[in-house]
Here is the input.
Amino acid sequence: MGIKPMGNDFTYATADMIVEKGDVIIVTGKTAAVEAFAELS
Here is the structure.
């Protein structure tokens, strides 16, 4: 998974990273796993 913070370059997500409103989350993997992740809220 990666994160693209507003106004910054893409970076790989780390355990201590905080996702903020406006950030873009980039998820790759098997379709079922990505769909399960997308349903989390």
Remarks:
- Helices lie at 31-38.
- The longest helix spans residues 31-38.
- Residues 15 and 34 are 18 Å apart (CA to CA).
